[in-house]
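Class, carefully examine what follows:
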Amino acid sequence: MNILGISAYYHDSAACLFRDGQVIAAAGEERFTRKKHDHGFPDNAIRYCLAEGKIQAKDLDYVGFYDKPLVKFERILLTYIATFPKSFRSFNKAVPLWLTQKLRIPALIRKHMGYDGEVLFGDHHMSHAASSFLVSPFKEAAILTLDGVGEWSTATQGVGRDREIQLWNEIRFPHSLGLLYSAFTYFLGFKVNSAEYKVMGLAPYGEPRFVDQIMKEIIHVGEDGSFKMNMDYFAYDYGLTMTNGKFSQLFGIPVREGEGKLEQVHKDLAASVQKVTEEIVLRMCRTLNRDTGLTNLCMAGGVALNCVANGKVLRSGMFEDIWIQPAAGDAGGALGAAYAVWHIREGKERVLKRRGDAMNGAYLGPEFSDKDIRRSIDNFGAKACHYQEFEELANAVATRLAEGKVIGEKPCELKQIRSNERRPINPFETRQNLPQRLDDPIGERDDRLSRGIAKRRPQHLHDKAQQERIRQNPEHDVDDQFECGLEHRSGFLSGFVAQLLRPFRRVFHRCDYARLHAIRFQRRERTFRCTAFRRDLRAQSGRRRSGETHARE
């Protein structure tokens, strides 16, 4: 059975080909287009995966999409309605894109791929959980997913046993640890959904002197790790920025300009939000360990890329072993969608390996011959050296780094190549000799360097037309960071949204994995408990959630 997993239209678009219990290939679209965090449809990644599997689109049994656009669109509309008229500018930018693109996923898949089979949709955080637990070497494990936002959830806790996953705790929008971190990323002058790693890297240079202020004014954290944010300081639920003027007043400084000077106060803010993040993650893990009694932990979601927080969890000793999805962000959702279809929808049992995980490492993307690499080097007129022995190469690279020079080939990202330590690396002599390509956004030092996963140039660098398209590097139309939602929904609003979405219901006639767990929740102070049940979105307009308790739709 051939299953293609896809993530697209938010950030980090990717594709994964899964066949009879094994990953055949997986790749991020940015590796081909050279647009960092490319959010477009992953045409190139899909073509690569199909070619690697020696199949065509007609040979696919299923295509799995990593989240449920209709449910996410409901959240966005409810937010815009509740925050109108402040939300009008954001609404005016986002909704046209939704109506023409993001709500037409099945049609776009068939258009781009020529695929006529079944398209399945999984819950965003279930895809994250599947990308971690179902891939891990554990028979059973506690599961923690943390990110900016999925459909409604921003964090979930649960457990995985064999091929089953149950998520029983969640925190909902707009309260989000990922968005809290992104808000400080924005405030410190870095790019949201891209440069959060810079905040983590800046933190050691500061003192966490704002921790008490953050915990008192901005976010209230419970002993179990649950939290609630004071939305008076944020604008991401209605505007095109992450924070508002009150946030600046709290800390006594304005939003830092992107290329502005980094003052000590900026370093102290980075250290403070990093400390808060670590404390919340530690409390969540401590609660999860107490509730499950399990010794293994699986993590996924964008916040799981915070390797400093992960290190604190590991050194705490509360879990004996931890497995974190290398592509923990949305790119890994493509992998999780494919695994969920195979194990959860089709009910196929997992086969655990004696050593390693089901991914066989993260090198699942394109590999390049010496001829391919030489062609790319010659096209850019770059200076390069070829080494036959790895030891000779390592010494040359270490020497150049010690001299403060720049190395052209840099490691890292969701499975771009198969490991071959004898493949030559191309050390450029000086920064002045670097090709113009390295000035593109993809040339920035990547946050995924901390993951130790290899990143390589795509096969098409020798194509002149492709090079020209890459240099243009158009910006994203709308940033998913600003597609935010509400904590509560009223029956009136939900009914209104159901009527508004009625013309699109036929498009989503298959909006769930048949046996995937959807979730209903009851609000208990700051912690949200949940029970699992099967959900059919075709009937969701019949019964709506209202009041403090979210009833089954």
